[in-house]
Write a structure and sequence with these properties.
Layout: E1 8-14, E2 19-22, E3 28-41, E4 48-59, H1 62-71, E5 77-90, E6 96-104, E7 110-113, E8 126-129
Length: about 150
């Protein structure tokens, strides 16, 4: 359908360490849950309220999967861009179920680590973009972020 957009931008914290699997073709697949929160003051009582949403994120991009496996841990704050996909599956009881996920596809998407939970393990900020991201000029171009660290595998 022409003229439609399927893009998700989230900033949140990992709910647990990422789950790393390998597909039958040998590709790495990383999945994790991401919490985003809204806060506001209740007009009636004046007290502060908070609502947390949980998002299931799946990375099919090999380079971002490597970064996620190496640097993401429970509680880390990340910025990510992907798209929504809903898939159908059958549970153990034979009932059809649906799951909507934020997918970072093989040649699209973005993942940026925003905090420094483990100062010895990860640089201050890591950023990786998909291959066809016009803004960064491609995978190896430092134009988008001059602070890239050399020991990052991308």
């Amino acid at each position: 359908m022409a003229g439609s957009v399927n893009k998700v931008v989230l900033v949140g914290n990992l709910g647990k360490d990422p789950d790393v699997r390998t597909s039958q073709s040998g590709a790495k697949i990383v999945s994790f849950s991401l919490a985003t929160s809204d806060t506001w003051n209740d007009r009636a009582s004046g007290e502060k309220r908070e609502r947390t949403e949980w998002h299931r994120v799946v990375i099919f991009n090999e380079r971002l999967a490597d970064v996620a496996e190496r640097f993401l841990r429970k509680g880390r704050k990340v910025y990510l861009e992907g798209s929504l996909q809903t898939r159908k599956w059958t549970d153990q009881g034979g009932q059809e179920r649906y799951t909507t996920e934020v997918v970072i596809a093989a040649y699209r998407g973005e993942l940026v680590l925003l905090d420094n939970k483990d100062a010895g393990d990860a640089p201050r900020q890591q950023q990786s973009r998909g291959q066809n991201n016009q803004q960064s000029g491609g995978w190896d171009s430092p134009q988008g972020n001059p602070d890239l660290d050399d020991d990052i595998p991308f």
